[in-house]
UniProtKB/TrEMBL annotation:
It catalyses: isopentenyl diphosphate = dimethylallyl diphosphate. Involved in the biosynthesis of isoprenoids. Catalyzes the 1,3-allylic rearrangement of the homoallylic substrate isopentenyl (IPP) to its allylic isomer, dimethylallyl diphosphate (DMAPP). FMN binds at residues 64-66, 94, 125, 191, 221, 272-274, 293-294. The lineage of its organism: Archaea, Methanobacteriati, Methanobacteriota, Stenosarchaea group, Halobacteria. Homooctamer. Dimer of tetramers. This is Isopentenyl-diphosphate delta-isomerase. One of its GO terms (molecular function) is FMN binding. The gene is fni. Substrate binds at residues 7-8, 94-96, 159. It comes from Natronococcus occultus SP4. Residues 23-95, 169-335 form the FMN-dependent dehydrogenase domain.
Length: 352
């Protein structure tokens, strides 16, 4: 097993066993305006939307989590089966391990998703830093690995900076992203990994031709915190302290959603999204969908039924928010007014 594959197993264990959550998404400062006379039937509300050129039944994304170790196959199978049954989009974790080593058992942790979800919208995942090593054919190989409908390029440079073995050369990544966005056979989404995307970076990505931006802002799982735990386990004391210091670093998800949506038409709000109400708020703020990762991990360990149960709960929460704001479609929800208060309002005022 490669170092990359072992790292994937470490990540899942730490997420399940340690406190790796932060607060401060900013959604607590966002209030939708209540409609006392909605004049619609809750059960006739249309929650469907289009993502990566395909129709999904709800604007809820099972965010990229894992893959690359045999222990993750069960998790990805359950997530993919649930995505198939509920017709929502799903991403896999970084496919670097699958591209590094031609190991049948390891590859199954990725290929299982298309087997379990033949009709669902699935997207692959490679790191921006790895694009400096990969040519377009390598990224196409990642697409083919899961018959992906889109490809995510993840930005995780804070995580890399905390890893004792991290890749901290970020030079030339934007040009490589533009190259892939221009030449790949499927849409390209650029996603952060828990630290958010600012307005300025969103503008650079839009100019580079990416098809979507997933903000993955501050307020959910902290990968700096996760890598701090890994560093502690191998005695890398300095990296452990760096991870702790930057545990809550980043642009809050609500702020990042607003800023990215001002620069790009297709934005996925993720990073501490924990309810269908959070998804509704994000869509009112300009997002096309909301994504969750960690909340699906424990249910996935129990099987697809548990994941479906959570997805149905999220959909009902979203539907309820739409009902009491008088929005009979996702398009209508995107036009609903909201009020910004507290630190999020202050943050945005300073930014403007």
């Amino acid at each position: 097993m490669t170092e990359t594959a072992d790292r994937k197993d470490d990540h899942i264990r730490i997420i399940e066993e340690e406190d790796v959550e932060t607060r401060g998404t900013g959604f607590e400062d966002v209030e939708l305006i209540h409609e006392a006379l909605p004049e619609i039937h809750r059960d006739e509300i249309d929650t469907s939307t289009t993502l990566f050129g395909a129709e999904v039944d709800a604007p809820i994304v099972i965010e990229s989590m894992t893959g690359g170790h045999p222990n993750t196959t069960k998790i990805n199978r359950a997530l993919a089966e649930a995505a198939q049954r509920t017709n929502v989009a799903m991403g896999v974790g970084s496919q670097r391990a699958g591209l590094e080593l031609d190991d049948e058992e390891l590859l199954e942790s990725y290929t299982v998703v298309r087997e379990a979800a033949p009709d669902a919208v699935l997207y692959g995942n490679v790191g921006a830093a790895q694009l400096l090593e990969y040519d377009l054919a390598d990224v196409e190989r990642a697409v083919e690995m899961i018959d992906a409908d889109a490809m995510a390029i993840h930005l995780n440079f804070l995580q890399e900076a905390v890893q004792p073995e991290g890749d901290v050369d970020a030079r030339g990544c934007l040009a490589e992203i533009e190259r892939v966005a221009d030449g790949l056979s499927v849409p390209v989404v650029v996603k952060e990994t828990g630290n958010g995307i600012s307005r300025e970076t969103a503008r650079r990505l839009a100019d580079a031709g990416v098809d979507a931006i997933d903000v993955a802002g501050k307020g959910g799982t902290t990968w700096s915190g996760i890598e701090s735990h890994r560093a502690a386990a191998v005695g890398a004391d300095r990296q452990e302290q760096i991870g702790k210091l930057f545990r809550a670093w980043g642009v809050p998800t609500a702020v990042s959603t607003l800023e990215a949506a001002a620069e790009h038409d297709t934005v996925i709000a993720s990073g501490g999204v924990r309810s269908g109400l959070d998804v509704a708020k994000a869509i009112a703020m300009g997002a096309s969908a909301g994504g969750l990762a960690k909340p699906f991990l424990s249910p996935a360990g129990k099987g697809a039924d548990a994941v479906v149960d959570l997805l149905e709960t999220l959909e009902l929460e979203l539907r309820t928010a739409m009902f009491v704001t008088g929005a009979d479609s996702i398009e209508a929800l995107g036009e609903r007014e909201y009020v910004l208060t507290g630190r999020t309002r202050e943050y945005l005022d300073q930014r403007q």
